[in-house]
Design a protein that fits this description.
The chain is of the alpha/beta class. The chain has helices spanning 29-35, 40-60, 80-103, 119-131, 148-161, 167-172, 219-231; strands at 21-25, 65-72, 106-111, 138-146, 184-187, 206-209.
C-alpha cells in the first residue's frame, strides 16, 4: 500500500504583512438560496448584507483597499428577472448605505463599464464617487459590468492613443489605475476560477479559496485569509 508522506510542518516564511489590496469574487448566492429552497433573489439579498458586514470589517481590520466583484460583463446572460433583482438591490444598497460609508471615511471607486447600466444607477454611483472622493481610510472598488478582457482592450486602446503600448502604459489605463497592486484574491463558494476578474492585476496576487457561500462569509473568515496571507512567501520570480 502506498505510504502517505508526512507533510512537513509549515513554518511561516511570510513577511507577516497585511495585504494592501484584497479583492473578492463574491460567489454562491444562488446555491445559498437553493439549499434553503428560497428564491435566488433571497440569496442575493443576503449577499448584500454580507457586503455591508465585510466593508465594515475591512475598515476595522485596517484594509487599505477592498475590491468586490458585484456584476460581471457575462452576468447579462442571466434571466432578465434576476438581472432586475440585482440592479434593484444595488440601487437600494447605494441609497441606504452610502451615507454610513461616507461617514466611515470609505472612498468609493467603480471599475468596469458601469456607464452601460441604467441612467439612474449611473447617476447615484457617480454622485457617491464624487461625495466620497476625499475619504482616505478604506477604498472600496466595486466591479460593475466588469470584464477583465474588456478592461484590458480599453486600456490598450487608450495607451495606443497616447502613443505607447507598454506594460506600464496599459496598467496606467486600467480601471484599477491608482489602486495599490492586488495582493490577495479571495473566491467564495468552492469555485476555483477567475471568471474574467482582474486577469492583469492577479499576475502576482496570492489566491485564497473557501467553500463558504458568500451570504455566510464573515469577518472571521476574512481575518483568517489575512492571517494566511501573512504566512505566504512571495517571490515575484526572484529568489
Ligand atoms: C454571486 O452569486 C452573485 C453574482 C454573480 C451576481 P451567484 O448568483 O453566482 O450564485 P451561484 O454561483 O449560482 O450559487
Ligand atoms: C463571477 O461569478 C461574477 C461575480 C461574482 C459577480 P459567476 O457566478 O458569474 O461566475 P461563473 O459563471 O460561475 O464562472
Ligand atoms: Mg456563481
Amino acid at each position: 500500500m502506498a505510504q502517505v508522506e508526512p507533510q512537513p510542518v509549515r513554518i511561516a516564511a511570510g513577511t507577516g504583512e497585511m495585504p494592501r489590496h484584497v479583492a473578492i469574487i463574491m460567489d454562491g448566492n444562488g446555491r445559498w438560496a437553493k439549499k434553503r429552497m428560497l428564491p435566488r433573489a433571497m440569496g442575493h439579498k443576503r449577499g448584500v448584507e454580507t457586503v455591508r458586514n465585510i466593508v465594515r470589517a475591512a475598515g476595522e481590520l485596517g484594509l487599505e483597499t477592498l475590491s468586490l466583484y458585484a456584476f460581471s460583463s457575462e452576468n447579462w446572460k442571466r434571466p432578465e428577472e434576476e438581472i432586475n433583482d440585482l440592479m434593484a438591490l444595488m440601487r437600494d444598497f447605494i441609497k441606504s448605505d452610502f451615507d454610513t460609508f461616507a461617514k466611515n471615511d470609505v472612498r468609493l471607486k467603480i471599475i468596469g463599464d458601469y456607464k452601460a447600466l441604467s441612467a439612474d444607477i449611473v447617476e447615484i454611483l457617480e454622485e457617491s464617487v464624487a461625495r466620497t472622493a476625499k475619504n482616505s481610510r478604506t477604498t472600496l472598488a466595486v466591479a460593475l459590468n466588469y470584464g477583465s478582457q474588456d478592461e484590458m482592450v480599453r486600456a490598450a486602446r487608450a495607451a495606443a492613443a497616447q502613443g505607447e503600448i507598454s506594460a506600464s502604459s496599459i496598467e496606467a489605463n486600467l480601471d484599477t489605475a491608482g489602486l495599490p497592486p492586488l495582493d490577495l484574491l479571495i473566491r467564495t463558494s468552492g469555485e476555483q476560477r477567475l471568471s474574467n476578474f482582474m486577469l492583469w492585476q492577479a499576475a502576482y496576487a496570492e489566491f485564497w479559496f473557501t467553500e463558504t457561500l458568500w451570504p455566510d462569509f464573515s469577518k472571521d473568515e476574512l481575518a483568517a485569509a489575512l492571517n494566511e496571507f501573512a504566512c505566504r512567501e512571495r517571490r515575484y520570480g526572484g529568489r
